[in-house]
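Final report, Chapter 2: Outcomes

The project's central promise was a pipeline that accepts a single protein chain and returns its three-dimensional structure in a standardized token representation, suitable for archiving and comparison. That pipeline is now operational. To close this chapter, we reproduce one record exactly as it appears in the project archive, with the input sequence first and the structure output second.
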Amino acid sequence: MTVNAHPEYLSAEKEYDLADNDEDRILALEKMISFLPGHKGAEKLRAQIKLRYKRLKEKVAKEKKSKKGGSKAGIKKEDLQAAIIGKTRTGKSSLMNLITNAKTSIGNYDFTTKTPIVGMANHKGVSIQLIEVPAIESEYYDKGIVNSADSIIIIVTEVSQIPEIEKKIERVPGKKIFAFNKIDLLSENEKRKISATLSSKRYNFVMISTKTGEGIEELKEKLFQSFGKLRIYTKEPTQKEKSPRPIILPPESTVKNVAEKILKGFSSKIKETRIWGPSSKYPGQVVGLAHKLKDMDVVEFKTG
């Protein structure tokens, strides 16, 4: 210990000794450096602490980079993928727990989520992959996932948060849905004012409460519609009921696309195709492989 050390330096040194993680140690070292004695006798100590600080920062940065790489490598993109983003403590984890099979940690402190969390939501028989991304203002925020997602749910609890977030995602290609959360804490008049403000700015938004569940079904429907995909059901010739889960396809898809999605090469084995639904002229219409389908069509294949 250097002679005549500042009391604040001694306090920071104690914090360093008691710290149970590297991030707290870094904060303590920053305090120690700022309160180091300025006389020549402290030069050696100053050099030692700065070197310790540099090495610890490099170690933490390397660990975070490794974690980010590992999390992205394990995420396989499904047919419908959406990212949930927002500032810390706006309810991202609560939404994940409410509408997906994921069980994420919810804490009464900032930046609870430090790695992307993946879960599957079900809406009318359609599976949607949701990824909760760490807070947008944190160092754990993952731009790569947000840029590749088909749609983005942006959770806010104040209108003033929107411009700040928009600046960070202005080049993100996915469809954007704003979810104004915690409306259970607002009066009816406050909700009307916020809704009017968001409408006037032409935002695609939903007013929700992850506590009461208000607006959640509307959010799920908006989310599905944002993908712009077709839900195509299949039916066995010997059965009256359609398949419980649809095949998800892009607009302008044909009967052949459905067959190939079921099994590659399957379209060459089809002898007859019948369809029911929006694209058919009448129930059970016989069509060819080039027939363009519409959302909610039902397709029946007969093979020879």
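Archive annotation: The longest helix spans residues 43-73.
This record, like all others produced under the grant, will remain available to the consortium after the project formally closes.
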